[in-house]
């Protein structure tokens, strides 16, 4: 078995697998180390709602075979109101999607090692030159990439990322049949992806229903265990309790039954990224937090992150005599901030404002969106300050002040 490669990637999720696809297509020797066993992959990491848009499907050449349902609209709900936006999308069968990325990369020459848990970087002269996995096995590369998500065993030991516990978002999702997707009094969710802002269901977060055909859908919620959750949450409730509460109280689920084996759990971080790279090393995907206030689009962000890391690696490796130093890998930071998560700070502020707002403000937001043009919402999601301002009211001043105080407290805490 070979122990030296151009690039070593830890993690076979969307970011790692896409990076491997691109590098293998360019002719590089790349190996991907994945914790899970191949026979059941991705049983443990089959966590995503996998809602995406046609732009992502086309940009990365994703086939129709992995799509459960194409959708025509996105719906935003509050406790008593809703807003419908015409926007085509796709709900993916996440397991099939991940397996496709692996197969496609392998077809171009990428090597995958399953049952390979990465444990630590191998350091020589203060630089990472490889990784250890499964305790004492080693593999070396000119460039090493951490795509392991929040676990980040390499990025953390290299002090590249600092994932704060108070910014940790957790999520749970089931798939159901027997859902009333066109219930009177609610938005029509046939061929739709719905996101709901309601602290009774997901305090400090949001919940969702993604239609997957006929009377079936993916149903889940997530929240951040931060000040907003403490303000609106219940001390005696776990995330499972909140989902059960929603299922018990929403009439759309009255006759719904869970599809056996279709339960997914996941986590991410909602915060600004720190460092993205160092000598011979890049962190990609959910190892480096990204922000998309309304639509999430975590899959797309991970895929984009993997792609710009592959572009960066190629820009160095294709030139003889150029070393993958931090300086020469700095283009990754530039591309990440330009293409993956532009306006990250502003988008994070909008996300925090959304989670701080009370339920009655969510109702008013839905009514505001109904009178504004669709471009306002799209631009606000991109971090356009003018568009965000259009969504604010005079009565939002206390929210803004509370957010400013939270940010100040965090800044002061980091100095202690």
Automatic annotation (TrEMBL):
It comes from the Archaea. It holds the Pfam family FAD_binding_3. Residues 5-305 form the FAD-binding domain. InterPro entries: Dggglyphlred_Halo, FAD-bd, FAD/NAD-bd_sf, Geranylgeranyl_reductase. Transmembrane segments: none annotated. One of its GO terms (molecular function) is FAD binding. NCBIfam families: Dggglyphlred_Halo (NF041385). This is NAD(P)/FAD-dependent oxidoreductase. It comes from Natrinema salsiterrestre.
């Amino acid at each position: 078995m070979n122990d030296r490669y151009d690039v070593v990637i830890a993690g076979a999720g969307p970011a790692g697998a896409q990076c491997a696809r691109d590098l293998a297509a360019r002719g590089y020797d790349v190996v991907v180390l994945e914790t899970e066993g191949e026979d059941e992959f991705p049983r443990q990491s089959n966590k995503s709602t996998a809602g995406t848009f046609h732009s992502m499907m086309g940009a990365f050449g994703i086939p129709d075979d992995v799509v459960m349902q194409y959708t025509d609209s996105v719906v935003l709900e509050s406790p008593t109101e809703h807003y419908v936006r015409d926007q085509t999308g796709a709900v993916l069968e996440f397991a099939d999607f991940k397996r496709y990325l692996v197969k496609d990369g392998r077809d171009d020459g990428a090597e995958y090692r399953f049952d390979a848990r990465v444990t630590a970087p191998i350091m020589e002269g203060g630089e990472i030159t490889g990784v250890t996995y499964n305790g004492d096995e080693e593999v070396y590369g000119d460039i090493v990439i951490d795509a392991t998500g929040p676990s980040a065993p390499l990025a953390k030991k290299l002090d590249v990322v600092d994932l704060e516990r108070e910014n940790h978002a957790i999520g749970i999702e089931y798939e159901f049949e027997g859902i009333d997707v066109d219930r009177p009094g609610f938005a029509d969710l046939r061929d739709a992806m719905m996101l709901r802002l309601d602290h009774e269901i997901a305090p400090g977060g949001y919940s969702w229903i993604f239609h997957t055909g006929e009377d079936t859908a993916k149903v889940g919620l997530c929240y951040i265990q931060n000040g907003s959750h403490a303000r609106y949450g219940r001390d005696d409730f776990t995330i499972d309790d909140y989902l059960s509460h929603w299922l018990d109280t929403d009439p759309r689920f009255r006759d719904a039954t869970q599809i056996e084996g279709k339960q997914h759990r996941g986590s991410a971080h909602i915060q600004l990224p720190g460092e993205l790279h160092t000598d011979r090393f890049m962190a990609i995907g959910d190892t480096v937090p990204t922000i998309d206030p309304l639509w999430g689009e975590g899959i797309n962000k991970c895929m984009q992150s993997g792609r710009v890391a592959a572009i960066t690696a190629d820009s160095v490796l294709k030139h003889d005599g150029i070393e993958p130093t931090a300086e020469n890998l700095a283009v990754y930071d530039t591309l990440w901030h330009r293409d993956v998560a532009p306006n990250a700070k502003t988008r994070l502020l909008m996300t925090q404002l959304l989670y701080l707002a009370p339920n009655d403000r969510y109702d008013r937001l839905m009514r505001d969106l109904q009178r504004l043009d669709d471009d306002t919402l799209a631009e606000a999601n991109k971090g356009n300050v003018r568009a965000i301002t259009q969504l604010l009211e005079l009565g939002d001043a206390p929210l803004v002040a509370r957010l400013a105080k939270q940010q100040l407290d965090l800044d002061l805490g980091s100095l202690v």
